[in-house]
Design brief:
Blueprint: E1 9-15, E2 26-34, E3 43-51, H1 54-63, E4 67-68, H2 70-83
Antiparallel strand pairs: 1-2, 1-4, 2-3
């Protein structure tokens, strides 16, 4: 009998260049989620765009390169979408 792994997903934060100078001091990019299936390239992406502050840095430090289960994954995705994805005004 094969025992199912408790930690199924691997998280990784990838920042991208922001060229607009009005967003100096912001972090933008994606949180990659490696899914547990047959492909080594099975990755979901959750976007982030947020001011780079102590709360953001602490959050990334806590979850970057971390293995999580489905419950933890859902919690982290919710936090990113609710707290760390801001849509700038045009």
């Amino acid at each position: 009998m094969v025992k199912k792994k408790d930690k199924e997903y691997a998280l990784s934060f990838v920042e991208e260049i922001i060229r607009d100078l009005k967003y100096k001091g912001w972090a933008g990019g994606r949180m990659e989620v490696l899914r547990p299936d047959e492909s080594a390239y099975s990755i979901d992406e959750i976007r982030f765009f947020t001011p780079r502050n102590d709360e953001w840095v602490k959050f990334v430090d806590e979850y970057d390169c971390k293995d999580v289960n489905k419950v933890e994954l859902d919690k982290v995705i919710k936090i990113v979408k609710e707290k760390f994805y801001q849509v700038p005004e045009a």
